[in-house]
Design brief:
InterPro entries: Glyco_trans_1, Glyco_trans_4-like_N, Glycosyltransferase_grp1. Residues 721-921 form the Glycosyltransferase subfamily 4-like N-terminal domain. This protein has 39 helices and 39 strands. With 1111 residues, it is α/β, with parallel strands linked by helices. Among the domains are: 232-268; 282-336, no CATH class; 353-499, 3-Layer(aba) Sandwich (Rossmann fold); 516-681, Glycogen Phosphorylase B (Rossmann fold); 707-916, Rossmann fold (3-Layer(aba) Sandwich), CATH 3.40.50.2000; 936-1093, Rossmann fold.
Length: 1111
């Protein structure tokens, strides 16, 4: 359901407070009036009554009311009339002059006077206490003799509530309808707001006495006057505006003519013609030299103008071919992305939840085939969730964590087919569930009940049957409510068909032992008819009923729902009570007062497939049932003991008469039916007998022997960005290969191109043998949400419920937020945290202050942070208070270096809960060999980030006069689809190259570092590890770094690199210049200390040892 408009009338008195919602569903618009509080329920009911009364008061056949199409206890849903309002017609007419607008006004007055039943106003007979209560105790004799509505008046007949469509006039709002004769002039006053003292007094009294009530703070008179449609004033204002606009248009026309003449003179001048080629070349050359791809689609940029010029000069057919090739390439790239590829057996046991994607608009169907399944699953301790099939995004989202999906009564529209495609991609086991033969068009055509319907409705049913049949055929298995139905479903579905009968749910069982019985001396026979399609079925019992009603005057026949009674019932009309559709609870309460239940069904295949709902419902209230001997009733009713079967007029008459004459028989049969229903059709019995076998057979079997590890990191392959991401990618892959562990990764992404349209949507994919769950981050995010995100918490909780991990391992979880640790604590799942940076203790993740200087605190002083960084004590303390308990509740804290372990222990974290787990790196292949060069090749991999030293290194190189070098800059943001480093921003003497980086892995690292002599690591803050430093060192690349904490732990100063004091730009410059002047040194250089560097396999083995200590 898509919400288009919402308005709350909360300023009214409580008994009139409604919310108006305009929404769209399945391509159609609707208007819903919903109560804001229980006190408004009577007002809502009165609106429904008004529909009937107003219909009877209309005398103009062109006038229609917006129909009520759905009703619940707290709302009414109306059809949305998509036409032209009288208000819009009037506004358009005003632009054409007074004659046109006056014509609309005359039309409106005529509509009021001739469209409804009217009479002459008589204050002596028409003014009642109710009239005075609403409109005040005024002198109404002034209105005597005027035309007024006859007994029923809709005072909401204002311009905006009158819609013209297809030569018909619709009234779309009839909230304020009174059983009073109100003058037509008052109604027109509400539209025109012409000054008239009596009408103004009536209006003020109506608003203050009825609408607003005791809400004295609401300045109703001024507010209402300001909002009224003061038409006469508007006409004058609009006329003046139109005159002003006409004058402006004339002035603009004159200016355009003058400019056109000037431009024409200029374009035809000789100088313009001579210099045109030069100007065009200059523009093209300048654009190409400074071309930036990311500006190509920004209107107004030189790149965009240039592209459009090329487009104009390429033949259209060639342009379309090029465009098609590009689109095909993009489409192929999307298909190649891991989240668009089918999952394998790696992820088979991820989902244990049962998802029901259902048609939810049919109350009884929802109750028996959806709500009852939820109860059954809960009784079996299985997690479940229900989604409407029309809510594609929610359904697709919930599929990601499902093990089984049941499509209940859904047609194979495009969105359902897309959901089935995603179901198949995920490897989720699918079922089609239905409780009627709605999928077989030929059987529907043979059904006499269907044949009696309007041809248009028949056609809709037949078209629907094709869609249901398609959906049935596209699922792997099926579920039927009866064995006969199951046999028909097997014709269209190749999988297994499970029978799951309807049963007695808790809503029904709450009435057990609460039956009131019939105390008024009448014997009441009840028939619950769902729709008009039961007219033919009812004929099975109709003759017997008429006969018995004539014979027994103390016999009453009660019909619930829609039923067209045969003419023969006219003779016993006084003994018949027909009650419209009721909510389930109201219907069940009504059943308590009846004596006999009937369930007539015409014999045939269609009805043999139906379930025994009518018998079950009556049995709860100990009502004896007389039913037709169709398959399900025959299987459950033991004739004469727990019910009666009848197939002819004589049998129906005999069965009913025996119950009418014998209260004892009614009670004994009702009691036996009650006991049998409770024994065989309770939720637990049906769940154990029918649902549990299905779940055991079809739900993916979880690998109980392998411990489940759930890792979490802000990013993950293929969005590899940053050292922590590389580490988790390698560790997850290695640990997942261990026969004792299954690893799943939870990660995030900002982009919406993953077909994740909403924040917090998730999708599953696999990469390098690891199962991944990706969530879309909210964008933009509030600063607080980086560490505390209560909307991310339930997402992660759902994942925990689905995966049931033995241990959760948090890596870098900024954006994912620390809130995801809270569900772990709630579910008693231990978690460990790898402290890749200072995020848990400092708002500045890398402790770089706003002035781009490293903070240099060892033991963090919160007051210092407030004064120098955050400048907001409340925010800083709130963050600290939130994160500290989560950190302290961790089963273990891991750090990638001794430096990092010391930093956390200095700040109050228990030393005995911290372990150093040095990050591993990808070692080079045995064939790795560096290339040689006559100039030194520097590489900087930190991207355009101040804390990584981008500006620091830029200043140094722009101050160096030497040119015998190459500087290679890696722009990390290119992997995220945008550039952050531009060559035009740099001014250096040596060669500058900007690259995307390397494909991470042994091959990519070897290929990159074989052409690098010196790695520059000018970090402006203390870092926990420094992955690229180790990757360079192990490949015999010299490293020049600042004294950046854990970065330096594998560097021996002067032997495999240089360690420079933080922020000492001059010393760093000298080390670079020294390298330039000794370029040949690096051609034969070998690092003598690379053996002390940790590999990923060694780190993984150590990590598994820690896991074992916890689980």
């Amino acid at each position: 359901m898509k919400i288009l408009y919402v308005k709350n009338n909360s300023e009214r008195a409580k008994e009139f407070q409604l919310k108006t919602i305009i929404f769209e569903e399945n391509g159609k618009k609707f208007v819903k009036k919903q109560i804001l509080c229980d006190e408004a329920i009577p007002h809502l009911k009165k609106m429904k009554d008004s529909y009937i009364k107003l219909t009877l008061s209309i005398v103009n056949p062109k006038i229609k009311l917006a129909k009520i199409i759905d009703e619940t206890k707290d709302s009414l849903t109306f059809e949305f009339i998509d036409g032209i309002s009288l208000e819009k017609r009037f506004d358009d007419a005003k632009k054409q002059g007074k004659d046109k607008s006056n014509q609309i006004i005359d039309e409106y007055i005529k509509l009021l006077k001739t469209g409804f039943k009217t009479t002459t106003f008589d204050s002596k007979t028409m003014i009642t206490n109710k009239y005075k209560k609403i409109f005040g105790n005024l002198d109404y004799s002034k209105l005597d003799g005027e035309l007024c509505f006859d007994g029923i008046s809709n005072i909401d007949l204002i311009f905006s509530n009158i819609i013209y469509k297809d030569d018909e006039i619709y009234l779309i709002d009839y909230e304020w309808v009174f059983d009073l004769s109100i003058s037509v002039s008052y109604i027109s006053f509400r539209s025109f707001h012409k000054p008239q003292i009596l009408h103004e007094q009536m209006e003020n009294n109506f608003i203050n006495n009825i609408v607003v009530g005791n809400n004295g703070f609401y300045k109703i008179q001024n507010n209402y006057s300001n909002s009224c449609l003061n038409i006469m004033q508007q006409i004058q204002d609009k006329d003046k505006q139109i005159q002003d606009k006409d004058k402006q248009i004339q002035d603009k026309d004159k200016q355009i003519q003058d400019k056109d003449q000037d431009l024409n003179n200029l374009l035809n001048s000789r100088s313009i013609k001579i210099t045109r080629p030069l100007r065009q070349f200059s523009f093209a050359a300048k654009t190409l030299l400074n071309f930036k791809k990311d500006k190509l689609y920004i209107p107004g940029t030189a790149e965009h103008i240039f592209a459009q010029a090329i487009k104009r000069r390429i033949p259209e057919n060639l342009f379309l071919k090029i465009k098609g090739i590009i689109r095909k390439k993009i489409s192929q790239n999307l298909r190649d992305m891991p989240w668009n590829k089918p999952l394998t057996s790696i992820s088979k046991d991820l989902g244990q939840r049962v998802l029901i994607i259902a048609e939810l608009s049919l109350p009884q169907c929802k109750k028996y085939r959806v709500d009852q399944k939820i109860e059954m699953l809960h009784s079996l301790n299985y997690d479940t969730i229900v989604v409407s099939w029309t809510d594609f995004n929610q359904a697709r989202n919930q599929l990601q964590l499902a093990g089984i999906v049941i499509f209940y009564r859904v047609p194979a529209h495009d969105i359902v087919k897309r959901l089935l495609e995603e179901t198949n991609r995920l490897g989720v086991i699918s079922f089609f569930d239905v409780d009627d033969l709605i999928f077989d068009k030929e059987l529907l055509k043979d059904n006499i009940n269907i044949q009696q319907l309007d041809k248009k409705i028949q056609e809709e049913l037949f078209n629907g049957a094709d869609l249901y049949q398609d959906a049935l055929s596209l699922t792997q298995h099926s579920i039927a409510s009866t064995p006969v139905l199951a046999e028909y479903m097997k014709k269209y579905n190749k999988g297994k068909c499970y029978v799951m009968p309807n049963c007695l749910d808790n809503q029904l069982l709450q009435y057990v032992e609460k039956t009131t019985g019939n105390k008024n001396g009448f014997i009441k026979i009840v028939y619950g008819s769902g729709t008009s399609t039961h007219d033919i079925d009812f004929l099975e019992a109709s003759d017997a009923l008429v006969l018995l009603l004539k014979k027994y005057k103390n016999l009453q026949f009660v019909v619930h729902g829609t039923l067209n009674l045969p003419k023969s019932f006219d003779a016993v009309q006084e003994q018949i009570l027909q009650i419209p559709f009721m909510e389930a609870n109201d219907y069940y309460q009504a059943l308590q007062s009846y004596d006999i239940n009937i369930a007539p069904l015409e014999k045939g295949l269609f009805n043999d497939a139906k379930s025994n709902i009518k018998f079950l419902e009556a049995s709860v209230f100990k009502l004896p049932t007389v039913a037709s001997p169709v398959t399900e009733y025959s299987s459950v009713i033991d004739h004469g003991k727990n019910g009666l079967l009848a197939s002819s007029k004589q049998e129906w008459t005999s069965a009913l008469e025996s119950l009418i004459l014998s209260e004892t028989l009614r009670l004994s049969i009702g009691e036996k039916a009650y006991l049998d229903a409770l024994k065989h059709f309770n939720i637990k019995s049906i769940a154990d007998k029918y649902f549990l076998p299905l779940l055991k057979e079809q739900l993916p079997k979880q690998q109980m022997l392998r411990k489940k590890i759930l890792m979490a990191n802000v990013l993950f392959n293929p969005i590899s960005f940053g050292g922590a991401t590389i580490v988790i990618e390698e560790l997850s892959k290695l640990i997942n290969k261990n026969e004792n562990y299954d690893v799943t990764v939870f990660t995030g992404f900002f982009d919406s191109s993953l077909t994740l349209p909403n924040a917090y949507d998730i999708t599953r994919y696999e990469i390098n043998g690891v199962s991944v769950i990706l969530v879309r981050f909210a964008e933009p995010m509030l600063p607080e949400m980086e560490y505390k995100n209560e909307l991310m918490e339930p997402v992660f909780d759902d994942i925990l419920k689905s995966i049931h991990p033995d241990l959760v391992h948090f890596h870098s979880i900024q954006q994912l937020s620390a809130s995801i640790a809270l569900p772990c604590k709630k579910r008693n799942i231990p978690y460990i945290i790898t402290l890749h940076d200072m995020w848990w203790l400092c708002e500045k993740q890398f402790m770089v202050m706003p002035n781009n200087k490293y903070c240099n605190q060892t033991k963090i002083d919160i007051n210092y942070c407030i004064n120098h960084c955050s400048h907001n004590a409340e925010v800083t303390n709130k963050r600290n208070d939130y994160l500290k308990p989560i950190l302290n509740n961790a089963a273990l804290l891991l750090t990638p270096s001794k430096f990092q372990a010391d930093m956390y222990s200095y700040n109050g974290i228990a030393v005995n809960n911290i372990r150093v787990n040095k990050n591993g790196i990808q070692f080079p292949s045995k064939r790795f060999k560096k290339t040689k060069s006559n100039k030194v090749r520097f590489a900087y991999l930190g991207g355009n980030a101040v804390h990584k030293g981008y500006n620091f290194i830029k200043d140094i190189f722009e101050s160096i006069e030497e040119s015998n070098y190459e500087l290679i800059l890696v722009d990390l943001h290119r992997k995220l689809g945008r550039n952050s480093i531009f060559e035009s921003d740099w001014n250096i003497k040596g060669q500058l190259s900007i690259v995307d980086g390397y494909e991470y892995g042994q091959k990519g690292l070897d290929s990159f570092f074989k052409d690098i002599d010196v790695l520059l690591f000018p970090s402006q803050g203390k870092e926990s590890f420094g992955l690229t430093v180790r990757e360079a060192l192990v490949r015999d690349v010299w490293v020049i770094t600042t004294d950046a904490g854990g970065v330096t732990e594998d560097i021996v100063d002067g032997e495999n690199g240089n360690i420079v004091s933080m922020n000492d730009k001059e010393e760093f410059r000298e080390k670079i210049k020294f390298s330039i002047s000794h370029s040949l040194f690096y051609n034969d250089y070998k690092n003598p200390y690379k053996g002390q560097i940790t590999s990923f396999s060694k780190q993984a083995a150590e990590l598994i040892m820690y896991y074992k200590g916890i689980i």
